[in-house]
Design goal:
By secondary structure, this protein is of the alpha+beta class. It is built from 4 helices and 8 strands. β3 and β4 form a beta hairpin. The protein is globular and about 50 Å long. The termini are far apart.
Length: about 170
C-alpha cells in the first residue's frame, strides 16, 4: 500500500470540537451547501487557477453520519465509510465499492502551539491535525498519480483546518 501524509495542520479550536465535527459527516452538510452557492468561494478558486465548476459536483454528494458518497467522473461514485472512531484522537475511513482499496485516517491531538477561544471567552488549547491516506495502487498508477495524491492530501488537510469548528 502506498502511504501519503499531510503536513501537520494547526486548528484554532479544541480537539473535542474538531473531533465532534469530523467524526459525523452530517456535520459537514452546511459547509458543503454553503460552498456550492458561495460566489466568494468560486472567485477564490478562479484566482487560485482552479475550475469553480467542480463545486457543482458537491450538489450530488450523499451524506449520512457514517458515510459520504460523491461523484468521481469515470470511476462512478466514490464512497468513504467510517470504520473506527477513537474519541478526540482518530477517525478511520475506508473506501467502499471502489476500484482502489484505500484508507484515510484523520488524527487530532490537543496542542498549546495555538490557542482557541471558547464562547465564554476562556482560552483553550488548539488542535494538531494530520491526515494519512493508504491506497493499494499498482506501480503504474502510483507513478501517474502519486504526486497528485501527496499534494491532494495536504490540500484536503488545509481545507479541514479552515472549517469553522463552533466552539
Amino acid at each position: 500500500m502506498a502511504k501519503y501524509e499531510s503536513k501537520i495542520k494547526l486548528v484554532a479550536a479544541p480537539v473535542e470540537a474538531v473531533y465532534a465535527k469530523l467524526s459525523d459527516f452530517e456535520n459537514l452538510r452546511p459547509i458543503i451547501e454553503n460552498a456550492t452557492d458561495n460566489d466568494m468561494v468560486r472567485q477564490k478558486m478562479q484566482e487560485a487557477g482552479q475550475d469553480p465548476s467542480v463545486l457543482d459536483n458537491l450538489r450530488n454528494v450523499e451524506l449520512t453520519s457514517d458515510r459520504v458518497a460523491m461523484p468521481a467522473g469515470m470511476l462512478g461514485t466514490l464512497s468513504l465509510v467510517v470504520v473506527e472512531r477513537e474519541q478526540n484522537k482518530c477517525i478511520k475511513f475506508q473506501t467502499e465499492q471502489s476500484p482502489v482499496e484505500a484508507n484515510l485516517w484523520i488524527q487530532v491531538l490537543p496542542t498549546s502551539e495555538i490557542n482557541a477561544y471558547a464562547t465564554d471567552g476562556t482560552i483553550v488549547q488548539g488542535t494538531k491535525m494530520r491526515l494519512t491516506l493508504k491506497a493499494d495502487l499498482n506501480p503504474m498508477i502510483k507513478m501517474m498519480i502519486g504526486n497528485k495524491l501527496e499534494d491532494g492530501i495536504d490540500k484536503f488537510a488545509d481545507m479541514l483546518s479552515m472549517i469553522p469548528y463552533n466552539i
